[in-house]
Write the structure tokens for this entry.
Amino acid sequence: MILPLNTLIVEDHPFVLEVYKNSCLTYAQHHPDKVKFNIKTAASSEEALRHAGNFLADQKLDLAMLDLRIPASEDGSIQSGLDLGIYLKKHFKDIKVIVITGHYQDLILSNVLNELDPIALVYKSDLENSTFTEMFEDVLQGTPYYSLTVLQLIRKKLASKIVLDRLDKMLLHELYKGQRTKDLTKTIPLSIGGIEKRKRQLKELFNTMHQNDEALINSAIEHGFL
């Protein structure tokens, strides 16, 4: 007997949400001997938390498919799909998390892979009909699945000799978002002098000394850090 796989899909674009849901149902229809899906959908962190509470009270949650950019929860405790994934893994011991994102800058692999350790990580532009089949085949066997773009970024980072710590990554990400140096102390626990020193060190690492911040960001993107 195949038991339903309790599944939560979180995506704030209704059409894309339906695509993901239908892909699950189509796979189950074609593989009735492998899996059935009991699906709940959410378009925001708040809605996802409500569903998670119901699963926690009545039954387990087996699988979550998350976009990284989703509306924050009302209390601000969940700001992204990454936060939501960490929350779900804390409350559901055996849950498998699939991350699907369409924003290149969201593929900050050190954060997603190290903090969340998803069973699958997929870049939306890589999605084809066969992608879901391949992904579900691997995920149901407990095998990690990474789409082509993600694999290329991983290889690029493995080939790079550049090693960054948490503050370096935070600084790069804030610069990427367009934050001015004088405002960075609001989000990064360093003084202005400390931030300037870090920035100089980063420019040296990325071979952009005596160039502007845009050159640093472009080099970080090229090396797969953004």
